[in-house]
Amino acid sequence: MQFKDYYQILGVPRDATAEDIKKSFRKLARKYHPDVSKEPDAELRMQEINEANTVLSDPEKRAAYDQLGQGFSPGQEFHPPPGWDAGFEFSGRGFSPHEAAGFSDFFAELFGRMGGGAHGFHTQGRGGEDHHAKVLLDLEDSFTGAVRQLTLRVPQFDASGRMTLSTRTLNVKIPKGVRAGQIIRLAGQGAPGAKGHPSGDLLLEVEFKSHPRLRAQGADLHLTLPVTPWEAVLGAIVPVELLDSTLKVRIPEGTQSGRQLRVRGKGIPSNPPGDLLLDIQVVLPPANTPKARQLYETMAQELAFDPRRNGKG
Amino acid sequence: MRDDEILIGSLMEDTWLTLEQVSAACAVEPEWLLRHIEEGLFPHADSVAGVWRFSAVSILRARRMRQLERDFEATPELAALMADLLEEVDALRTRLRCAGLP
Question: What's the gap in Å between the CA of A129 and the closest CA on chain B?
Answer without folding.
Answer: 7
